[in-house]
Write a structure and sequence with these properties.
- With 212 residues, the protein is α+β, with helices and mostly antiparallel strands.
- The protein has a single domain, classed as Electron Transport, Fmn-binding Protein, Chain A (Pnp Oxidase, Chain A, Roll).
- The protein is built from five helices and nine strands, in the order H-E-E-E-E-H-E-E-H-H-H-E-E-E.
- The protein has helices at residues 27-37, 82-89, 117-126, 129-137, 147-160; strands at 46-52, 58-64, 67-68, 73-78, 92-99, 104-114, 172-186, 194-201, 204-210.
- Strands 1, 2, 3, 4, 5, 6, 7, 8 and 9 form a nine-stranded antiparallel beta sheet that branches.
- The longest helix is centred in the C-terminal third of the chain and has 14 residues, at 147-160.
- The protein is globular.
- Homodimer.
- Residues 172-212 form the Pyridoxine 5'-phosphate oxidase dimerisation C-terminal domain.
- One of its GO terms (biological process) is pyridoxine biosynthetic process.
- Belongs to the pyridoxamine 5'-phosphate oxidase family.
């Protein structure tokens, strides 16, 4: 393959600034403000979820934020997936939101816990039928021979559930990252970015500016 060189690929970040006075005292409130600002961005609720197994081997992928409660940030997935298996071994994880149009990032770190089955049932019932069928047909992250074999699995599930009564697979459920650290990043010119970190110290969020 030909060498790939992006050392001269860059752009300036000049859209906005971020000052200590701009920040909410509670990082959940700041998160809510920035999520609202990002509503018009493509895939505004997409977040990169980074996990690691018991030996520390990392893995990352994009998932969709589904709701935020007073404990943390929640999403849904199959426990048989790589992320599910890694979280079962090592519940520490990190999330990353990135909105290119706003020149903003949010990093969130903490431990992950499973949501109650009722939450998973309620959300599963709210999903489009096609998504329900796909979840029931897929053993997420397991190898499959080809696309045809995957579609045949879907057809078998459709035959078993002809009238929309798709039951949530027991392995499919919700996760919540309970944060102890947030970082809000605003791109600035000449890479002199604005970065503010919230760290949970004895049930109080402490805020400090970080160097870029």
């Amino acid at each position: 393959m030909s060498p790939i060189d992006h050392r001269q690929t860059r752009r300036s970040y000049q859209r906005a600034s971020l000052r200590r006075a701009d920040l909410a005292l509670d990082p959940f409130e700041q998160l809510a403000d920035w999520l609202k600002d990002a509503e018009s961005e493509p895939d505004a609720t997409a977040m990169v979820l980074a996990t690691a197994d018991a030996k520390g081997r990392p893995s990352a992928r994009a998932v969709l934020l589904k709701h935020v409660d007073d404990r943390g940030l929640c999403w849904y997935s199959d426990a048989r997936s790589l992320k599910g298996r890694q979280l079962a071994e090592n519940p520490m994880a990190a999330l990353l939101f990135y909105w290119a149009g706003l020149e903003r990032q949010i990093r969130v770190e903490g431990y992950v816990e499973r949501l109650p089955a009722k939450d998973a049932d309620d959300y599963f019932r709210s999903r489009p039928r096609g998504s329900q069928l796909a979840a029931a047909a897929s053993e997420q992250s397991s190898p499959v021979k080809n696309r045809e074999a995957l579609e045949q699995r879907l057809e078998r599930v459709q035959l078993r559930h002809p009238h929309g009564d798709v039951r949530r697979p027991e392995t499919w459920g919700g996760y919540r990252l309970v944060p102890d650290t947030f970082e809000f990043w605003q791109g600035r010119d000449n890479r002199l970015h604005d970065r503010f970190q919230y760290r949970l110290q004895y049930e109080t969020w402490e805020i400090q500016r970080l160097m870029p």
